[in-house]
């Protein structure tokens, strides 16, 4: 349920509404927009009747939210959420580019990519240290050694880092080294993990599972938000299709669908979606044209030698070309690429 307060309402009136919500055992989330203050009551709504707010000063309207997610919903938060990640903003009018290798393989490999990403104007550096591989015999990542490289090189080039946390047992560890915690597609409905990262101080990058609906993605987002972590980005990375020409099928319509239903930033990953280097750039351009708040792409100094996902990784040179092509597309849809110097 959301309680919309009259404009210019004072804190005492907001507190009175919060009190009524908490008295029946629900949680209250206050969202102060430019024009209105909205209070979300989250929990078992059968315990809360709209009449509870009748006669309370400052209340403009009381509306049930019919969707199975509340805090992630645009009803609760009409303006786009804009997050601060290091010196950068993500969401709203900004277009962010998150780039780096699939896996952190060595200091030299990661440093080469990191410099290329920074020099071409990337906003965040990605690299996996714990890898969710389909086969247990495939390269599983460097673990904590990889996290150290991620942290050191991220510091050297001055870019915030993003890396996947695979398991609840590793949340504390990854939190010590990385700026943004990625929840991979396979873990989108690992609810214990979502609850755990919902209590972390780091921003979260939540990827859609290839068999999940956009509504299920938003319900997973709700797990994180309802624990109090509201620094959350979503990611579309392709769903299971039938055409073996691409690794997955990029669901670009999910971008405006999610933007309609939610205030959270939505980033597109054309690398995992297509699985093919030559399709990554066209799909990155299309994503920004469709309203995505950014892209995540994989870049490797020598993709032929990559320990994971070689066929979909861009060379640093191709990444530079992509950045040059993205800028006018962002411009054409009234958005702008975030650059290191502007923050
Ligand atoms: C990744 O981004 O490193 C990754 C494994 O992607 P996904 O979870 O989307 O498969
Ligand atoms: Mn990968």
The gist of it:
Helix content is about 30%, strand content about 20%. It has helices spanning about 10-25, 105-120, 145-155, 170-175, 190-195, 215-225, 255-260, 270-275, 275-290, 315-330, and strands spanning about 1-5, 25-30, 35-40, 60-65, 85, 90, 95-100, 125, 160-165, 180-185, 205, 230-235, 265-270, 295-300, 335.
Structure description:
With 343 residues, the chain is α/β, with parallel strands linked by helices. The chain has two domains: 2-63, Alpha-Beta Plaits (2-Layer Sandwich), CATH 3.30.70.1140; 83-337, Aldolase class I (TIM Barrel), CATH 3.20.20. Helix content is 32%, strand content 19%. It has helices spanning 11-23, 107-120, 144-157, 171-177, 191-197, 214-226, 254-261, 270-274, 277-289, 316-332, and strands at residues 2-5, 27-32, 37-42, 59-63, 83-85, 88-90, 94-100, 124-126, 161-164, 180-183, 204-207, 232-236, 266-268, 294-298, 336-337. The longest helix has 17 residues, at 316-332. The model has no long low-confidence stretch (mean pLDDT 96). The structure holds phosphoenolpyruvate and manganese (II) ion (MN). Phosphoenolpyruvate binds next to loops.
Name a few traits of the molecule.
Alpha-Beta Plaits, TIM Barrel, 2 domains, nine-stranded parallel beta sheet, four-stranded antiparallel beta sheet, 10 helices, elongated, binds phosphoenolpyruvate, binds manganese (II) ion
């Amino acid at each position: 349920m959301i309680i919309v307060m009259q404009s210019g309402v004072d804190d005492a009136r907001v507190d009175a509404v919060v009190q009524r919500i908490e008295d029946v055992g629900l949680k209250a989330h206050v969202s102060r927009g430019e024009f209105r203050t909205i209070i979300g009551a989250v929990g078992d709504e059968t315990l809360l009747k709209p009449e509870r707010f009748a006669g309370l000063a400052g209340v403009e309207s009381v509306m049930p939210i019919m969707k199975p997610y509340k805090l992630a919903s645009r009803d609760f938060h009409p303006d786009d959420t804009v997050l601060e990640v290091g010196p950068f903003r993500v969401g709203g009018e900004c277009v962010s580019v998150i780039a780096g290798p699939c896996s952190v393989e060595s200091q030299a490999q990661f440093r080469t990519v990191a410099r290329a990403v920074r020099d071409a104007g990337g906003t965040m550096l990605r690299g996996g240290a714990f890898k969710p591989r389909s086969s247990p015999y495939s390269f599983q990542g460097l673990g904590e050694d990889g996290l150290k490289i991620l942290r050191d090189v991220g510091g050297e080039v001055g870019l915030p880092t993003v890396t996947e946390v695979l398991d609840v047992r590793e949340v504390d560890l990854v939190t010590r080294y990385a700026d943004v915690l990625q929840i991979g597609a396979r873990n989108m409905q690992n609810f214990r993990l979502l609850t755990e990262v919902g209590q972390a101080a780091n921003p979260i990058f939540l990827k859609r599972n290839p068999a999940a609906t956009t509504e299920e993605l938003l319900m997973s987002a709700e797990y994180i938000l309802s624990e109090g972590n509201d620094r959350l980005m979503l990611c579309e990375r392709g769903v299971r299709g039938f055409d073996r020409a691409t690794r997955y099928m990029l669901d670009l319509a999910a971008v405006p669908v999610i933007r309609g239903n939610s205030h959270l930033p939505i980033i597109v990953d054309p690398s995992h979606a297509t699985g093919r280097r030559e399709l990554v750039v066209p799909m990155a351009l299309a994503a920004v044209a469709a309203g995505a708040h950014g892209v995540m792409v994989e870049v490797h100094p020598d993709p032929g030698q990559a320990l994971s996902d070689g066929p979909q990784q861009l060379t640093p040179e191709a990444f530079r070309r992509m950045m040059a092509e993205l800028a006018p597309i962002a411009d054409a849809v009234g958005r702008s690429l975030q650059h290191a110097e502007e923050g």
